[in-house]
Fold this protein.
Amino acid sequence: MNGGPDGRTAEGDGDGGDGAKLVGVVLVSHSAAVAAAVAELAAGLAGGGTLAPVAAAGGDGDGGLGTSSELISAAAATVDRGAGVAVLTDLGSAVLTVKALLAEGDELPPDTRLVDAPFVEGAVAAVVTASAGADLAAVEAAAAEAYTYRKV
């Protein structure tokens, strides 16, 4: 896995081996360490085959806690392979930052969606589903379904 100092990770070429494009996944957290760890976990649990492109966009860009529209835009561009980008967030202001970027219209790749899902479980479901070659709607549905996962 490629992992830069900013915590971003991206694996594979985003192509399912047969030329099919895969949905990219961006994980937005207030913490660069949390975003990178969740990206690593999701990628590791996706299995050994083709891995959908995954990028972490965490922190304020200066190493502190917060969110950065620049990091989010860069991460989305990194994972965009033409099949759409699913963006999952951790907390409220991360949601607001992504919504603002979507409203601007030109800051994120076409077919970028903010996905309402739990951050960790949703990220795993999104990356696994995207890696299987599912379309953006199916990736979004799988991540959202993670709200129903029971632990006890």
User: Anything to note?
Assistant: The chain has a mean pLDDT of 90. Helices lie at 32-45, 69-79, 92-104, 119-131, 136-145. The first strand starts at residue 2 and ends at 3.
